[in-house]
Amino acid sequence: MPRTSRTSRPIARPVRRNADADLADLPEVSAVDQVDTRFLQSLLGYNARRAALAIIERFLVRMEEFGLRPVEFSVMSVIHHNPGVTSRQLCAALNLLPPNLVGLIQSLDARGLLTRLPHPHDGRAVGLHPTPEGQALMQQAEQAALEIEEAKSLGLTPAQHRTLLQLLQKVYL
Amino acid sequence: MPRTSRTSRPIARPVRRNADADLADLPEVSAVDQVDTRFLQSLLGYNARRAALAIIERFLVRMEEFGLRPVEFSVMSVIHHNPGVTSRQLCAALNLLPPNLVGLIQSLDARGLLTRLPHPHDGRAVGLHPTPEGQALMQQAEQAALEIEEAKSLGLTPAQHRTLLQLLQKVYL
DNA sequence: TATTGTTATACTCTATAACTATA
DNA sequence: TATAGTTATAGAGTATAACAATA
Predict the structure, then answer these.
(1) How open is the CA angle B170-A36-A163, to the nearest 5 degrees?
(2) Is the CB of A172 inside 8 Å of chain B's CB atoms?
(3) B25 CB contacts (<8 Å, ≥6 apart)?
(4) Comparing A45 with A6, which gets the higher pLDDT?
(5) Which of A18, A120, B121, B130 is 20 to 30 Å from A101 by CA-CA measure?
(6) Using a 7 Å CB cut-off, which residues contact strand C?
(7) Residue B121 is inside which H or E element, if any?
(8) pLDDT in tens, B63-95
(9) What is the overall mean pLDDT for chain B?
């Protein structure tokens, strides 16, 4: 078993010039030609994070025209499908912390994408409603999101796409 | 179709006291009882991110005793399995940016978990090697990571676990 | 007393530009 | 000229404590 690796995969021995041959055998100093990441690839957390980042990278590019970052998109999407939802409900649904939602809501309000109306039967709460502009934007943005995440644009079959969604939800729901 | 929702799921109408009945029908102000997140749940990016965060949450707790955060764990794991790997190779393998790796390496070096030796045939590069302490720590930490991410501890069958890993790698590799 | 929304704040993570030493 | 490693720095994301108004 070569000293340069603790794995079973064959690893090329470091390239050594003849002039260094007498020195090179003393210290355990070797070079790596191909990085072995097989251990990390056996961990679900690592793979889920890498996959999420890969998809979000595409998402960022596609959503530039709508001026929506991922969290803004998900907040507007929930408001779009749940007019009158409160900040607290949003935080619970999207696993956000209340202080971090405040600035987001203010920014989306300032852009004219949502309005804040009194809650019908809780004076502490505020209902979040999409404006017509917000509804129009989200109709386009959600269509674009669906296109990006289509099975074939990710190299998956429709069945694999469905399976992946189900298994991921089994993990976090 | 109720005005309070654009989805097909039946949504409870807001609770109204009789005294408000004459006012409540004028403005389109409604309350939401159950938040509908079905659209987001059809997006792979959203689900991958939520699943990754759920697993990483468990990871953070379990790795506290080793003093390793996720990125530190993955960096040490790659060094553990690839002694002599360079910073540049680490960045490529883990999708990190070089400036963000510098502090990590310095910190792990200061903790005595790795040593930085001259690269055998590139004077610009530095080879990263685990110390005996680093090797001992990673042997324990990797075992703990495997236990956390076992199929049954995530509510999956072994077959589902394998399928999930394969499909995630199809997306980001 | 508990909850909604908010402010202030700190810490981590991520990203870009620019420098040095070597190839 | 190009690459490895580094510095400085800015921005986004995430976290806790504490407060006012309302339930």
Answers:
(1) 20
(2) yes
(3) none
(4) A45
(5) A120
(6) A 86-88, 98-99, 101-102, 105-106, 119, 122, 124-126; B 69-71, 96-97, 99-100, 122-124
(7) none
(8) 999 999 999 999 999 999 999 999 999 999 999
(9) 87
What is the pLDDT averaged over residues B8-24? 42
- What residues of chain B lie within 8 A of the CB of A91, using their CB? none
Query: Dihedral of CA A131/A136/A142/A145: which sign?
Result: negative
**Phi and psi angles of residue B130, each rounded to the nearest 5 degrees, phi first:** -75, 140
**Angle at which helices A158-172 and B44-63 pack, to 10 degrees?**
40
Q: What is the CA radius of gyration of chain A?
A: 25
What DSSP designation does B66 have?
Answer: G
Confidence grade of residue B42 (pLDDT, cut at 50, 70, 90)? very high
Q: What is the pTM of this model?
A: 0.85
Using one digit for the tens of pLDDT, what is the confidence trace for A55-95? 999 999 999 999 999 999 999 999 999 999 999 999 999 99
The residues spanned by each domain of chain A are 44-172
Q: Say yes or no for a CB contact (<8 Å) between B165 and A90.
A: no
**Alpha carbon B19 to its chain's center:** 50
With distances taken from each CA to the C1' atom of nucleotide C13, the closest residue turns out to be B100
Q: How close B100 gets to chain A, by Cα (Å)? A: 17
Statement: residue A150 has pLDDT above 70: yes
Domain made up of A44-172: CATH architecture: Orthogonal Bundle (1.10)
Q: Which nucleotide comes closest to A56 if you measure CA to C1'?
A: C14
CATH of B40-152, one of 3.90.1150.10, 3.40.50.150, 3.30.1330.30, 1.10.10.10: 1.10.10.10
**In this structure, what token pair is assigned to residue B28?**
């389109």
Residue pointed to by tokens 């990797």 = B142
| Predicted pLDDT of residue A28 | 62
